[in-house]
Amino acid sequence: MTSPQFTLPSDDHDPLLWLEEVEGDDALSWVRSRNENSTAVLHTERYREIEADTLAILDSDDRIPEVTQRGEFLYNFWRDAAHERGLWRRTTWESYRSGRPEWDVLIDLDALAEADGINWVWHGAHVLYPSYRRALVSLSRGGADATVDREFDLDTRSFVEDGFTRAESKGSMTWADGSGDEVFIFTDFGDGSMTQSGYPRVVKRWRRGEPLVDARTVYEGEPTDMYIGAFVDRTPGFERTFITKAITFYTDALYELRGDHLTFIPVPDSAEAMVWRDWLLIELRDDWTPGAETHPAGALLAVRYEEFLAGGREFAVLFTPSESASLSDVTATRTRLVLTLLDDVRNRLVSARPADSGWALDEVTVTGVGRFDTLSVRAVDPYDSDALWVNSSGFLTPTTMLLVEGDGTAETIAQLPAFFDADGMEVSQHFALSDDGTRVPYFQVTPPGLTGPAPTLLSGYGGFEVARLPAYTPAMARAWLARGGVYVLANIRGGGEYGPRWHQSALREKRHRAYEDFAAVARDLVARGVTTPAQLGTQGGSNGGLLMGNMLTGYPELFGAIVCQVPLLDMRRYSRLLAGASWMAEYGDPDLPDEWAFIRTFSPYHRVADGVDYPPVLFTTSTRDDRVHPGHARKMAALMEGLGADVTYFENIEGGHGGAATNAQAAMMQALAFEFLWQRVGER
User: Fold this and answer.
1) Cα torsion at 182, 187, 193, 198 (round to 10°)?
2) Averaged over 374-392, what is the pLDDT?
3) What's in the GO CC field (predicted)?
4) What is the value of pTM for the model shown?
5) Which of 181, 185, 269 lies closest to 219 in space, CA to CA?
6) Which positions are annotated as active-site residues?
């Protein structure tokens, strides 16, 4: 590699700060130039085929319309070829069960965007309970995290003139009671009202017709808190209002608002607390000894709520983790909880129901689920029903939506068609041995007839206690598997596949464990003859983009190509950019010398060195990403360009942190990544 005259960043000097000016003229000129270069190289016939295939899947009318019940109606948000930005719509149970529901369109987002002259992206709606006459609709410009809330009349299908409106900001607004005449609002109220992480720190109660400036402050957090919010539990007979304080990403405080009085719920700040009917549920992230017994991290405890507030500490243990099993999710219905467990990264369900003699725990059997299929569970109506939506999905198994009643009877409501031919493809699970001897699981999906090393795509995340699980992703399958590639999903430390211990074993100064795990999987694939370093591509986004940056700078010899999407890369400045300060519990504080000492070891922007033979890399990001600053990808690409590395860069103008605001943009971004990979590792 040649070494042109170029200044590398140091701890105290960054020669590329100008690329952090999101909409600066020079920065956008640089972006447009790289976009033009990238599309000239990547817009091949194969790219156009992959893009068309992906868009056809994303726009297909055969997709399952996921619904949420509100009163007598089922609500859905839908995008297709004719509605690029989407429709918010509803239907009846009878119509939905027919398989060809008739939809009542409430908001046509394309028409609204055209009328307002704003590239609106849907961010959800909060429907008023129990009348269901009004909704607070959340929209963002171009897919950013910052949103606008507007009150909508479901009878007239129009926004309410002089109704509740929240100006563009990170934050939210929620109904304060069933009257529809008051809301809780937490947003940017002006100087000093946001945390250092860029989120609200003040909650106000706002009455209809009252100037926002006169709204009553309910709670005010500290600037050093991460996020302050409010929500209302509307369970009949158990109506309560709560204030939530995210102190850091992994520590919280929960208060119940009773009249004007705040009651603190004294659980460990690292635990997740949930009040369900007359029970308090506590999911532990750390060991806890509230009395004579120590409960381990990852356990789920239950105690009568009022008894707990009065000092009672008699807990029922609903789940205790093991070496292989962890708690993934808890779903509450009218009379029971459904626990979603992971056992060596495979799902099973357990029903927990309070009884006179304690809690009754029973396995929930869902028929027709494959060995490596993933189960996701939602309550149909947690106030009035024990019914569940249960979705099953696997790498090769099209998603099936089941309606499971409280008595266990199940009805198939919808099933995806097979979007690709999986005949002859195989799914297997393997374990690689990391540097410290830890067994790291990974899934491998193999195309038909594979006899030797093949182009392989390795994906991972490894952060924020997020578990990566098998899922039906036909766009990937058609772009990669059907063309002869192998797909691999690594379940590295830092994620949530084995609960809090798996996550905490790669936090902060132990971050290197996640990268060692991922490198171990890459080596295992080569050792098993699945692929070769020249044929091994890897892909990840956000925290997974940080993972990719560390593969690029720490293990360049293991990979033939790297796709690094909406990434964190400059860990010296990450906490000063957009929402970065909220992640210091995950990575550490780079402004503290002792912590920067270990953060620097996984800051890809500072690990780049002259004279290293780096594999080809594609960086992608979005100008409208207001969560992970686009400057990370811009600066890293410019830095590596300056050293003569093989760098491809593309920045989508819209899209927010997801990278795309429409199906067409999503298809484009996916096609760019797959075409890059095929050119670099598939044609060798």
Assistant:
1) 160
2) 96
3) cytosol
4) 0.94
5) 185
6) 542, 657
